[in-house]
Structures are given as C-alpha cells and as structure tokens.
Amino acid sequence: MTAVNDGEARRAQGEPEPPESLRTFGAVLKALREEAGLTREQFAPLVRYSVPYVAKMEQGRRFPPGDLVGRVSESLGAGPARVLDAAVRSLRRKPGLASWFQPWAATEEIALSLYTYDCAVIPGLLQPEAYLREVLRQRLPAASQDKMDERLAGRLERQRLLETRPDTQFSFVLEEALIERRFGGREATRSLLETLLERGGRPNIEIQVMPRSAAEHQGFEGPMCLAELPDHHWLGYVEAHDTSTLITDPKTVSFMLQRYGKMRSQALSPEASRSLLEQMRGAL
After folding, report:
1. Which of 2, 96, 157, 209 stands the most exposed, by the fewest C-beta atoms within 10 Å?
2. Contact of 175 with 210, CB cutoff 8 Å
C-alpha cells in the first residue's frame, strides 16, 4: 500500500491523520528499509518487531521505541542508524520547516562537515531575512501571512546552526548568476551580499563563487548537499519541488563527493570570491 493509499484508507475508516512529524519519520524508516532491498516481512525479524508494528511505524501511526535505532544499527549498519537517529530527533522539533526537509535539518545538527551547492537559489543557511521574505512571498502556491511568518521564523532559527556549530566546517558553492539576478530587488541583494561577506569571513565557513565564464562545471547535474556524520560516514541529499531524497548508498555518495570536490577546484578561491562579492556590493 502506498503512502497516499495509507492516508486515504485512514480517512475512509475515520482514523485521524498522524502528526506530520511521525509521518516524516515513517517515510525515512521505509526509505532506509527499501534502500537495503528488504521487504517489511524480511526487515521485521531483523529488528525484532512484528510486521504489523513495522508497518504502523512506517505509516506514522506508532512512535518509534527507544531501542529502534540500536536494532537498526545491528541489522543495517551504522550509517542508516545515524540517519534514523536524526529522524528521531526531528520528531521533537522544527516548526516552520517542511516535513520532507526535517530529516536533513536534524542531520545538519550533528554533522562535522556540511557542503552545499545550489544553482536555483541561494542556500537557505545564507539567506538574509530580506531575501528569505522574497523567497516566501514569491513561492507558489501562495501561503497565508501567518504561515509565511511561521516559515520565516523556522528558517531563521535553522540558521542558528552557523552560530551553535563553530566546529562544523561549512562549504558553499554559489553561482555568480544567482547574485547578479538581484532576486527580490536591489535592497534584498545588498542584504545578501553583506551577509555573504560577513559569514564568509568566519573561520569555519568557506564561500566560493562559480563564475559565469566557467567553461568546466561539475554542477550541471543539479543541486546537492553532503554531510559528514560523527562516525565520518557521509550522506547526500537532493531536493526539488517539495520532495527530497536522502542518499545513504556509499557508492552514490562517493560520486557526489567527487563532483563537489571538482566544483570547488573549478570555482573561484574563497579569497577571489570575497573580492568579487565586494566588487558586486560596490556596484549596487
């Protein structure tokens, strides 16, 4: 039964819809199981729960027991267990962030290193409030003012990572064209440039600009995020149009790391990027 059909069946039977956070956790558990190539019938005995209980957790109808992460570690390995632990953490938080994003938001909070490349919009951790407001205002379908305020607060709260994780190494590769577009107008762009210069000056944050003239560019396959976990395993993450994929397969993540590393060599150095950002600020 698909997640959509699960929801339709519950509504038809008069069952209340599970909380969004539990549905998100269930989706992560299901994705990890499927990525391991296991059916529910195969997975259940490995984690020592019944098949119906596993199904209910995946549907968001049961809160995960305290020993679930340990049992997943025994059966699927440390990497998937780290992902699941991050998803468990997401059950306790994050108003204002989309349900499909919350597992990655939890992953960010434990990461030793975070790498981000986006070719469509400035990464959320670097968006100043004026830019953020424009992102929310222009987003479709339109939301109520209360909902936009909630999302704004949630995204600004997420940016506290840059303050509370001074030992995390952050790397961002930004497209020069995204800044030149002046998304949101002159003042939003000025605020953006000031923010990039301030945050890029911190010892644990590296910002590199990919110039428009770059003839070789490994970002042609699209946006990507990478996170190094405390056990030094890496995860990948991609998102688009209100959907996301958390990537745990070591081979795929290795390819992503290779591409990101190549992009860093193709982009301007942090020093040259800072000089360019200062020039762009002066030209406004």
Report:
1. 2
2. yes
Indicate whether 267 and 238 sit together in one domain: yes
Q: Which helix (H) or strand (E) holds 104?
A: helix 102-108
Least confident of 105-114, 199-208, 259-268: 105-114
Residues 147 and 267 in one domain: yes
Tell me which residue range forms the domain holding 179. Answer: 99-283
Radius of gyration of the chain (CA): 20
pLDDT of residue 210: 97
Beta strand 169-175 with 234-240 is: unpaired
Q: Do both 34 and 158 map to the same domain?
A: no
174-189 residue pLDDT tens: 999 999 999 999 999 9
> Which of 91, 110, 141 is at the close of a domain?
91
Burial-class residue 258 by CB neighbours within 10 Å (0-12, 13-18, 19+).
exposed
CATH number at residue 148: 3.30.870.10
- Tell me which residue of 128, 213, 121 sits closest to 162, measured CA to CA: 128
Measured between alpha carbons, how far is 230 from 112 in angstroms, rounded to an integer?
6
Q: What integer best gives the mean pLDDT of the chain?
A: 88
- How much is the pTM? 0.72
Number of C-beta neighbours around residue 281 at 10 A:
16
Query: DSSP per residue over 219-232, as a string?
Result: GGG--EEEEE-TTS
Looking at the structure, tell me whether residues 119 and 153 fall in a common domain.
yes
In this structure, the answer to whether residues 150 and 213 fall within a common structural domain is yes
Q: Output the six-digit token pair for 50.
A: 């019944």
